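Re: the request from the purification team.
They wanted to know what the chain is likely to look like in 3D before they choose a buffer screen. I agreed to run a prediction and write the result into the notebook, where they can find it.
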Amino acid sequence: MIKQIVRDPLFLQQKSEPATEADKQVIDDLMDTLKANTDRCVGMAANMIGSKKQIIVVAAGPIIFPMVNPIITKKDGKYETKESCLSLDGERPCVRYKEIEVDYLDRDFKPQHGKYTGFIAQIIQHEIQHFSGELI
């Protein structure tokens, strides 16, 4: 189900909790909401639709994939950039890494490991940052 985007900074600044298999509907809602906003958004974290769970979805071109409880295990190539967020107005400076490795669970809660570079790596880092409650 397509959900409304949360824009309340007080809610967005709350920390997210690990997701469980009971949160599969959140994954579906997050994917539906990103699909409905692909004209202006390339990734989303669950708190953006009102759920404080560690779930993100990423648009890699036409493919949208979820990452449940993702943890960045390796990062390289630090750089500074500016980003915007669908939940916030304007752009803000931030630090990202050109290459990352991530351990996560897929839609079926099976362990996965991925290596990501460039813009996809940047999207993943941005969305994972939502878990800490730190706004860019």
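For the purification team: Strands lie at 43-45, 55-60, 63-85, 88-105, 111-117.
Please add any questions underneath this entry.
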